[in-house]
Inverse folding.
């Protein structure tokens, strides 16, 4: 478990200790041991929270994204134009959108991503996006944190 107080997510996971252990190992690696910069990681996570209406995920990661310099207006841009973002961030935004909405990623989006990121970074980014899509679906399905009835992350 994370040091300090337990989050509502931790409490939900503790219904299965074995799963909680694996979950924390996997997501601890994504959060703390990849080569991705904080802005790229948090941009992807927050975009997933917006797309999947995962308020708890948004509340946990939006402050981290802001601290890392992610422009919230660009993050919330549904037209995927990435206003206020760097070219690298815009490429990540498109990649995150396609992975989250379509699963398959267009060749154009993938080629654009390769302009800015190494193979290792693309693998780490893909695992981050896939993993945090899992997180958002878990949170929303179980209404973790009892936040689904509140204003969603998109608003």
């Amino acid at each position: 478990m994370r040091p300090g107080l337990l989050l509502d997510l931790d409490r939900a996971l503790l219904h299965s200790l074995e799963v909680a252990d694996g979950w924390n190992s996997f997501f601890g690696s994504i959060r703390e041991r990849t080569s991705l910069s904080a802005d790229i990681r948090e941009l992807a996570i927050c975009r997933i929270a917006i797309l999947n209406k995962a308020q708890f995920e948004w509340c946990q990661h939006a402050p981290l994204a802001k601290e890392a310099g992610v422009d919230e207006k660009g993050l919330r841009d549904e037209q995927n134009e990435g206003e206020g973002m760097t070219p690298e961030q815009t490429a990540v935004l498109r990649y995150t959108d396609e992975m989250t909405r379509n699963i398959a990623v267009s060749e154009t989006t993938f080629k654009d991503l390769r302009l800015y990121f190494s193979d290792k970074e693309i693998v780490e980014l893909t695992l981050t996006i896939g993993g945090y899509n899992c997180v958002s679906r878990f949170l929303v399905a179980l209404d973790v944190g009892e936040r689904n009835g509140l204003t969603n992350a998109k608003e």
In short: Residues 151-155 have pLDDT under 50 and may be disordered. Residues 8-146 form a domain with the AhpD-like fold (CATH 1.20.1290.10). Residues 91 and 104 are 15 Å apart (CA to CA). The chain has one domain: 8-146.
